[in-house]
Amino acid sequence: MPFTEEQAVHALTVLTRLAQREQNVGRWIVDALLRDPARLVGPAIRVAVETGQPMGVHLDRVLRETDLPTEVLVAARASIPPHTTVLGSTDAVITGILLDRGVGAGTPEHAGLAVQHAERLLETGDLARASEVAATAVEAARLHPGLHLLEALRVRSACHTASGEHLAAIRTAQAAVHALAELGIRSPGVVATTWHTLSVRLLNAGRAGSAAAASDRAEIHARLAIDSAAAERGDIGGAYHLLGLVSLGRAQALIDADRPEEALDPAMRAVTIIREHAVQSPDGHGVEHAQAILTAARALAARREAADESDPLVAAARGAVAEALPAAVIELCRDRGRRRDLNGMRVYATFAVNIFTRIGAKAAAVLVDAFVDLGLSWLDNVGGQPVERVDAAAVVIEAAVAVGRTLDDNERLAFQRALIARGRLHERLADGPDTEAEAAAREAVRVARDGPLLARAVAANSLANRLANAGRIEEAARAEADAVRDLAAVYQPDRADQVFVAAAWTRRLFALTEPGGGPDDDLLGFAVSLLTSYRPHRAADTVLGNLTAIGFEAVMVYVRRGDAEGAARAHRALGALADATGDEGVRRARVLVAFSALCGHLRAGRVDLAVEAHDDVAGVRSGDEQVVQWAKCANALINVYVDTNFAAAQELAMRAGPALRSPQYLAALPSLGENDPSGYLAWLDEIVAGHGVIPGADRVTLEALEADYRATVAQRRRDFGEHHEATLATRVKYAQILHWLGRTAEARTELGAAVEASRSQRGPDHEQTRALQERLDALAPDSG
């Protein structure tokens, strides 16, 4: 069925957003595009511009693997916005295909296409290919001398600079200047751009004096370009932008020529002009504006050392630069990351660390947070960033820590975040025990010690993660307990972020403290309160999964501690959560934990709470699992009632009859230690009929049976040994007869011996062992 462009855009947007969270979804994007690449390349470009990566990455693959018509590729390339970063490689792929097909061969347009291709390759970090294409562009442009030759020489010199070939870059830029005269080109804008390029190349080679002279020539022609554009109603915005770039180059040259007192004025002029132009073209000039901000910061720092603080230019620049500097540094680091230029990132990051201490920017905390966010995005591969992710993250996270150390106590939270990020970074870098990650986490705890409780909680949780990953479970448990305790003190159930974190941390606390018997009582109480205070959450699946585990484990911990009231509270909270959410996972946990809670109540002598647990599971009507659990709970209570309250046993046997007589429960009886389902049903029938607990049996008969089974148990222990199946089955039946005779203590002794024998023979987690243990738990010490 045909699809519209809007339908395609919607579908691809959904896939892209999903791929930004789940890495394996990328193949779905490729499969979708391959269904009809000629029609989908346009919508894919729209989605990449509006939604971001990884659409561009997968579109590149499809373009390489398919043979799309030339007219489709030309139209696709025309739809890519200028200066885009997300589609920079896509533009390069399309242009490369068009060049390989010889589109426009032998014409000036072919040279122009090669220039644009080289620029895109350079932007995306493919320096070797960019240099090759730029050389080809120069040769093609010489066949048709004109503006394309100047552009080709400019890009070729940029490739030389990127390769560290500064002398070659200068010679190529000088060739462009000479070509101006040879070609008779007098356009002020073109002349200004050509001299500006030479100025930048000279500056890159350390020739600051010559660079300043070339910049002077560029500025003269840039101002002429503005006058010309104003007179002819031309592109005056572009002319001003050119003046901004020239002013930026001039400021950089003056600083490097040890004339910083002259650099602040052109630097601030560059900031203003490029910013105003960037507002008109927001995708195009963010990096240039960021470079202007950093240059102004350098000039400001140098000017303050040589000038009076009362200088109005210094005062005006300080506020503007301090406010814009964090975003500028991040933009430049991100740009270097896209270009895979780790050395460039280090330069900018190091400069930021130094400059903040020199100009006294109050925005240092903002920079720390921005560095951390950028580093974590690379560490987690958010948006498919095409960089050496861990190495790039290391540069900016270490810069965040360095700036963070300069912050005062009012900004300690930013420093703490940086330290926690450093811990995560070192954990990724470590091959073995990660002492550096632990050291960073412990320093974060120290920094947060006197700060807000929530900050302390975050730091303690980070330390717990490090310790748990190192296998130091007891220490991790103590750190996690500190984290949950601090979080509990400020917990707000209407804060979605706190709900998510509390559920995750508390579940982890149960796992870490399991070897030691579970969390402290105060933290157990907080854990139960999380269930009762739950509100609908945007990440309901994750949060409810954690809360379900918390509720189940809380019941079990209370049962193991013999705290019947605590177990009942936790079970009620789990039931309330199941009723409020209707979640199947919560409902299942409520059912599965009921029998353990009931047995704990019986051991504690709290038959009333055992009845409550039974009634709760009896009221949950769904599935075979619930039927079996209901029957187990009812059977345990009936065994208590037959000797203490026969009327209650009779009433319960009738009320729970559908579960007790169900095929599901009868099939489960052998695994519960009852190998005679027909005898079990007969026993139920006798109770319902009010005839007692053994069909037609009086006490004399029971005593005779007891003597017979006692002898049989002794015989089988001699013949088969303690652990044989026949011995175990006979001991269980003997214990049942002792219980019917009211000799409960002896019955518990026999069952206890059977449990120990099964644990030794089958293991503590074997189904039969657990069934025997549950049967023993259900046999209350004072029953009978």
Q: Which short descriptors sum up this protein?
A:
784 residues, mainly alpha
**Which shape, going by the Cα principal axes?**
elongated
The SS-based structural class is mainly alpha
Main sheet makeup: none
Helix content: over 70%
- N-end to C-end Cα span: 75 Å
Unreliable sequence segments: 279-284, 382-387, 692-696
Overall residue-averaged pLDDT value = 79
Based on CA atoms alone, the radius of gyration comes out at 39 Å
Number of strand elements:
0
Instruction: Please report the number of helical segments.
Output: 39
Strand content: under 5%
Structure description:
The chain is elongated. The chain is built from 39 helices and no strands. The chain is 77% helix and 0% strand. With 784 residues, it is mainly alpha-helical. The chain starts with a helix and ends in a 6-residue tail after the last helix.
How is the secondary structure organized here?
Blueprint: H1 5-19, H2 26-35, H3 37-51, H4 55-65, H5 70-78, H6 88-100, H7 108-123, H8 127-142, H9 147-162, H10 166-183, H11 188-204, H12 208-232, H13 236-256, H14 264-280, H15 286-306, H16 312-338, H17 342-359, H18 364-379, H19 389-404, H20 412-429, H21 435-448, H22 453-469, H23 473-490, H24 496-513, H25 521-532, H26 540-560, H27 564-581, H28 584-592, H29 594-603, H30 607-618, H31 623-644, H32 646-655, H33 657-660, H34 663-668, H35 677-689, H36 699-719, H37 725-740, H38 744-762, H39 767-778
Helix pairs in contact: 1-2, 1-3, 2-4, 3-4, 4-6, 5-6, 6-7, 7-8, 7-9, 8-9, 9-10, 9-11, 10-11, 11-12, 11-13, 12-13, 13-14, 13-15, 14-15, 15-16, 15-17, 16-17, 16-18, 17-19, 18-19, 18-20, 19-20, 20-21, 20-22, 21-22, 22-23, 23-24, 24-26, 25-26, 25-27, 26-27, 26-28, 26-29, 27-28, 27-29, ...
